[in-house]
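FAQ: What does a multi-protein file look like?

Like this. Sequence, then C-alpha cells, then the next protein.
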Amino acid sequence: MGQISMATRDELVVALAARYASSSRMERGRILDEFTAVSGLHRKHAMRLLRAGQAGRRSGPRPGRRLYNEAAREALIVIWEASDRVCGKRLRPLVPILVEAMERHGHLQLAPEVRTGLEAMSAATIDRALRDAREPGGGRKRRNAPPSAAIRRNAPVRTFDGWDNPAPGFVEADLVAHSGPTAKGSFVQTLTLTDIATGWTECAPLLVREQHLLTEVLTEVRKRMPFVLLGFDTDNDSVFMNETVKTYCEEAGLVFTRCRPYRKNDQAWVEQKNGAVVRRTVGYRRYEGLEAAAALARLYSSLRLFVNFFQPSFKLAGKARDGPKVKKKYHPPATPYQRLLADVRTSEEVRRQVTAIHATVDPVRLLQSIRVAQQELVDIADRPTLGEAVAPTAPTMEQFLSGLRTAWQEGEVRPTSKPKEKVRRSRRRPDPFVTVTALMREWFETEPWRTSRELSRDNQDGNARQSGWESRCGAVVVGRA
C-alpha cells in the first residue's frame, strides 16, 4: 500500500482516538494493527498519537524560533555582494574567509555574536535570508515545475507489452505535425487514434495545437466510431498532459494512461499508423490555415472508410528472442472491420452497424475522392510557389476507372507523394561577358582557328591596355590642370 498524506493521517488519529480510549486491550491491539498498516508509522509512535488524541507536530513557519536578527541579515547582504552574489551553497564555506579578509583590510567590523551567527548559518538559511535581496537585482528564481509534471505523475504508465489483449475501445493517440521543412509558426496537425484490439484508425485535423480544441475534436471523433471509447493512451506531450484532458477523460469514463518519456515503441500501434496511413496519404508538405484543415477533414472522411473496411494489415501475435535475433509471429492479415466482427466481445448492435456501412461503401469511389482531396491539398500547399496556376479538373468516374488499368505505368499516383515543384532561380550576379560578347564573336568569325583561351587572353590584355590608357589620360589631364 502506498503512503498516505499527513492530512489523512491526522484525520485518522482524530477519528480513532475516542474509540481507542474506550476499547479493551484486545480491541486496542486490533486498532493499532490497522492504523500502523495504513499509516506506516511505528507502533510505539502510533500508540502515543492515539493516546494523546491529537495530530502530531505540524511543519510550517515558526517566527518565534528565528535565530538571526536584522544585523546578521544586513551583514550577510554585505558579504554576499562582496562575493559577487554567489549562491548559498558556495557562500557558506566562503563566509569565514571573506569576513576575515574584509576585517583585515578595514572594510567590515562585526560584533562577536553577529560573526558567530554568520559562521553558523546553513546554506538553506542563507538562501532564505537573501531571497528579498535577490529579486530586485534580477536574481534567477527557482524554476517551477510545468503544470504537466503533476499530471504525468498521476497518469499510469502503459508500455507496449502492458495491454494484455484489451477489448475494442482502448486506443492510442498521437499528433502528426504538418509543418513541412520548418516548425516555425502555426500549422495544422492530425490527431490519430488507433484501436489496440482491431486496428481501427480514426484521423481528424487540428487547426491549432490547443487542449480545449483537442477535447472538442475528440468528442466529434467518438461520435463516428462504431464502438464506445474506453481508454485513452497518449505520449507525454503537454497538449495531452494537462488538467483539461484529464478532467475530460474522468467525466467521460475513459482510462487515461501514458507511455514512458522518449520511448516511442510504447506507442507502436499508433506510430505505425502515423506512417502507413497519415504520412502515406497526406505526405510531408506544410499545411496551415482553415482552408487546409477543411481539406484534410474531407480527405479523412473518405480515408477512414477506405482504411478500416478495405485495407488489411498485419497484427503481431508474439515474439521470442533467440540470441541476437528476435523472431516475430503475426496473425493473418485482416481489415479492422473483419477483426471487429471476429472479436467475441463486440456487441450485436455494433455488428449490425458496421455491416450496414460496409454494404453501402464503394471502394473505387472512395479512392477517387481520396485522390481528389489529395490534389486539393497539394494545390493549397503549393499555391504560394506556383502562383495563380489553374487547378486541374477532377477526373470523372469513367476516366478514373479507365486510368486504374494504366496508372502503374506512371509511377507514383498519389499527388501528395510527388515532390514539390521548384521554381528555377534566375541569375543573381551580372554576366561578365555582356560588354565584350560582340567583340569576341567578331574575333572568332575572323580567326576561327583560335582557341577560347587565346580569345580570353586577348580580351584581358585589351582590358588591361584600355585601363592603362584611361589612367594615363587621367594623369595628363590632372597635370595640365
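And here is the next protein:
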Amino acid sequence: MEIVNKRISEDEFSRLRTEVLAQWPTGKDVDLKEAVEYHKSMPKSRNFSQKLIDAKRDGRTLVQPRAGVPVIEEHIKLMQYLEEHGEADLLPSTIDSYTRQNRYEEAENGIKESIRLNRAMLNGFPAVNHGVKNCRRVIESVNVPMQVRHGTPDARLLTEITYAGGFTSYEGGGISYNLPYCKNIPMERTIRDWQYVDRLTGLYEEMGVSINREPYGPLTGTLVPPCISHAAAIIEALLAAEQGVKNITVGYGQCGNLVQDIAAIRSLLELCDEYLAKYGYGDVIVTTVLHQWMGGFPADEAKAFGVISSGSLIAALSKATKVIVKTPHEAVGIPTMEANAQGLRCTKQVVNMLSDQTFNDSRLEEEKNIIKLETRAIIDKCFELGNGDIAVGVCRGVEAGVLDVPFAPCRFNAGKMLPCRDNDGAVRILEMGNLPFSQELRDFHKAKIEERAVYEKRKASFQMVIDDVYAIGKGRLVGRPKY
C-alpha cells in the first residue's frame, strides 16, 4: 500500500467517505454541514479543545476517567454519576471490543443481550450502533466535554458518527492503535486509515469547530522507555498536523520513577512543540496527558489508592494538562461506578493540593536531556529512512526496529529492544536491538543497569524484566530478588 505524508485531496476524501459511511446503516445519518452547526450550537463548556487550552493557560491539571457501558440509558447514568460524584472535569466514552474490530453486527447483538439480561454484555459503549442521535443524547446529558477512547485500528466510521454526535476529542493513531493492539495489520494500512480520521478532524477545524486529537501515550504499559512513547506520539502529532489538526494532546504512561516521569511529561511537550515548529506546524496547540499506572495493581483497595495517588502526584508536579485516572478495582475487573468516582476524587484531592507547588531537582534536567537525545535519534532516523517523509519513515522505522515497542503483539514490530529498571526504578534499556543510539547513550544505559546488578548481586538479565513486571503487585517498584 502506497503511503505518503500529504494532505488527502478533496476528491480522494470524498470517495473514501462514501465507502466509510456505507459500512453500517447508522452512517447514513451523518451530515457534515449539519454536524458542524450542531457543534456550534453547543455551549463552550462542552468543548474539549477549549477546556484544555484554559487549563494549560492556568496551570491546572484536569481529571478524566475511563468508562463505558453498552445500554444508552445506563451509559448516561454512568456519565452523570462520574460528573457529579466523581467531580470529573472531562468524560470519556470507552468503546467496546466488537466496535474496535468493526464487528458491528456482534455489537448489535451485545446491546440486545445487555437489555434482555439487564447487565452489560459488552465491555464498552458501541457508538457506531447507537448512531448520531443517541450519541447526542449522551453529550447533552452532562455539562463537561466528552472524548472517544477506544483502540480501533480502522476507526473511520466511529469517527464520523461520534463527531457528528457531538464528541469534541478523539483518542488514537496509526502507530499507537496498531502496535500495542494488533497482530497482523500492516503499519501502512493503519497510518492511511488514521490520515482519514485526521483529515476529517481538519475539515471540522476549517469549518470553525475545533476537535482535540490525542495519540495513545502508554503503548504497552509501564516498562516502555519514554523515548519510545515520545517518538510515537510526536510522529502521530506530525501526521495529524499535516491533515489540518490544530489541537493535539500528547501522552505518557506513568513508569514509576518520580524524576523520570516528571522529566518525561515536560520533555514531551517541549519536543512536540519543537518538531511541529520545525516542520511548519507552529500554529498547533499542544497539551499533555499523564496516564496513571498501566500495569498490575494490588488487589487490596487501600494499597490501590496508594498507586492512584502516586500517579496523581506525578501529574500535578509535572504540570500535565490532564490525567487519566485509574480505580481501586483495577486488580479485579471492570470497576463499579462508585469505585470509578472514588479514584477520581482521590486524584482530584492530590492535584488540587499540589497545584501551587513546583518540582525541581538536580537530576531533572539531566533526565530531560537524556530523553530528548534518545527521542530525537529515533524520530530523525525515521525521517532519514523515509527520505524526509515521516509517514514512509515510520513504517520503515518500525520494520527496521528503529522504533521498537516492547512486548507489542504486532508481528511487524521488531521486538528486539528489551527494557528493565535501574537501581532507582527508572526505565532503562537492557537490550538495545536496532535503536539508533549513540555509543554515549548505550554506555549510559549499560552503566545504569549494571549499577542495579551490582546492588542486587546478580547478573543483568531477562529475570530482572520479569521481576519488574510483578513488583507493584507485591508493593514495590523495582523487582528485587528478596521481594
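Q: Is there any per-entry metadata?
A: Some entries carry free-text notes. For the entry above: Residues 61 and 321 are 5 Å apart (CA to CA).
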